[in-house]
Amino acid sequence: MRTIHWLVGLLAGPPLRRDERGLSQSTEIAILTGAVVTIAVTVGVAITAYVNAKLPHP
Questions:
Q1: Is residue 48 part of a domain?
Q2: 24: left (phi over 0), alpha (psi -120 to 50) or beta
Q3: For residue 13, what are the CA distances in angstroms to 1, 6, 8, 16, 26?
Q4: Rounded to an integer, what distance in angstroms lies between the CA atom of residue 5 and that of residue 10?
Q5: Tally of domains in the chain
Q6: How far does CA 49 lie from the centroid of its chain?
Q7: pLDDT of residue 46
Q8: Which of 14, 30, 38, 50 has the smallest CB count inside 10 Å?
């Protein structure tokens, strides 16, 4: 069994180095979620302002 593992390791090549310069996955998701929420709130406020401007005022 060790021969098989050695052969697979030889065929696969050396392990790839990890690039640890970026943000973690959870941090990236949190930033993207915050951006999406900010855009959604901005669109909601813009639509509300537009509709309120078009309504007749007494």
A1: yes
A2: beta
A3: 19, 11, 9, 9, 30
A4: 9
A5: 1
A6: 30
A7: 97
A8: 14
Do you know the residue count of the chain? 58
Residue 42 forms part of a structural domain: yes
Spell out, as residue ranges, where the chain has pLDDT lower than 70: 1, 18-20
Residue 3 CA from chain centroid, whole number: 42
Q: What is the pLDDT of residue 19?
A: 66
13: left (phi over 0), alpha (psi -120 to 50) or beta: left
Amino acid at 20: E
Tokens of 52: 């309120």
Q: Tokens representing 15?
A: 């392990």
Residue 40: inside a domain: yes
3-class secondary structure, 58: coil
